[in-house]
Specification:
The chain has 251 residues and is of the alpha+beta class. The protein is built from 7 helices and 7 strands. A hairpin with a 2-residue loop joins strand 3 (83-88) and strand 4. The model has no long low-confidence stretch (mean pLDDT 82).
Length: 251
Amino acid sequence: MSGLGIKEDKHYMLVGDLSGKEKVRVMLAQALYGNPDNLLLDEPTNDLDMDTVTWLEEYLSNFEHTVLVVSHDRHFLDSVCTHTVDIDFGKVNMFAGNYSFWYESSQLALRQQQNQKAKAEEKKKELEEFIRRFSANVAKSKQTTSRKKMLEKLNVDEIKPSSRKYPGIIFTPDREPGNQILEVSGLRAETEDGMVLFNDVNFNVEKGDKIVFLSRDPRAMTAFFEIINGNRAPQAGKYAWGVTITTLICR
């Protein structure tokens, strides 16, 4: 439970007195405890912070028995999976390798299928080279040997293109944005009882920047986005959107 983020001072509390997210972590700990022969996990990373997800990845990478994982988190799948099951148009196909290997090899096979002029021998060499490169990039030490063995046994004829379609969400701006996107200066937020969620937050977002927001307390993240969306007043500080930016009030 400690590895899953349940602090020691809560280990002797009643489950009914825990928060909803803490109850989920306790149930996950219960599933892992006892070293079961088969472990079925449905979206196990939901509501877990990065440290806890990393702990779970390491735990499952060293797990000696069968684990079946359903997850939207492809990075998590890449870390823990040795096989990928593709359920497509009523057919179930299992492939050696993690999600990225399945996706990239499937896309490669699809491109080869569309290029009818490519010679069979050239196709085989391209797929074999892909398998070698992927095998060399396996990150988890516990699974490196087992994955390499599976990939070495994989026949290139077993790699088939998937007919799965990947939807995309495309945002088209009304106008080209300027260089200045968002400026945050000295921002501070507190709970109603005076607990500080964050203090003196300063940063500047410019066109083309890619940003990740991380917080150990989800209340801090919620408060921050509530503030910059105009739904909540900060205890201190200010923010300003660029003059070319149009914001929508989300309530």
